[in-house]
Automatic annotation (TrEMBL):
UniProt cross-references to InterPro entries, sorted A to Z: AAA+_ATPase (IPR003593), ABC_transporter-like_ATP-bd (IPR003439), ABC_transporter-like_CS (IPR017871), BCAA_Transport_ATP-bd_LivF (IPR052156), P-loop_NTPase (IPR027417)
Molecular function terms, GO-annotated: ATP binding
Species: Pyrodictium abyssi
Name used for this protein in its record: ABC transporter ATP-binding protein
Coiled coil start-end: none
Amino acid sequence: MPSLELRKLNAGYGKLQILFDVSFTAPPEKITVIVGPNGSGKSTTLKTIFGLTTIYSGEILFDGKNIAGLPPHKIAKMGIAYVPQTDNVFAKLTVRENLVMATYGLDESSAQDRVEEVLEMFPILRERLDQKAGTLSGGERQMLAIGIALIRRPKLMLFDEPTAALAPKIAIEILDIIARLRDEYKITVLLVEQNAKKALEYGDRAVLLVGGRVAFEGEAEELLHHPDLARMYLGLVAETG
Ligand SMILES: Nc1ncnc2c1ncn2[C@@H]1O[C@H](COP(=O)(O)OP(=O)(O)OP(=O)(O)O)[C@@H](O)[C@H]1O
């Protein structure tokens, strides 16, 4: 079972360093949530794992292999899927075209099976097959983005704020889907979330980033109830009594 381990990672954009000695582990078949204030480097961490930033030093071990410095297409090939926050579907193509595009390189029968699997997981997409992705609701668009990623049968999925801008009820639906990916598909999940409380309730493990450094790594539950960190950085009021 693949786990992901970051070891003393220093990374950023060109000369602008954003991540400082970032180390943490995302254990197999668990949801690891990355939380932290705005600008603390959460998205940059996901982009770095997927080969989209400049790495100065450190290691990213996936399944025991160091993937730091590999280009995104090689990282994808190893079984890692990245679902960015926006621009994660082709708005001008239909739902069907988006899914078919994602099967590129698969033989025809497995391509059909995989699309069918996605439609079984997200029945609403079946109703929208001939609709342009740009006309989907926010929640439906997230489902399509997740579906596109699932077609490659990833072992590790990186989600960047998948519930941003969604109504609370729809946000819960998306988090439920992510929990199903862990439980039914045995996928290891790394989840960046703005809504720390909800995400920590769903997550197994947690990483708190502050100023590009790891301020906490441990059980999600522990961070949720941490007397100081939860209040200082996540705006959560520790429960009393
Ligand atoms: N492409 C880029 N080029 C240069 N700097 C960037 C780029 N993308 C992000 N940054 C900077 O990196 C820092 C960390 O941004 P990042 O998006 O990783 O934070 P975040 O924790 O995900 O924040 P948020 O919750 O606001 O999305 C910020 O100061 C941001 O301005």
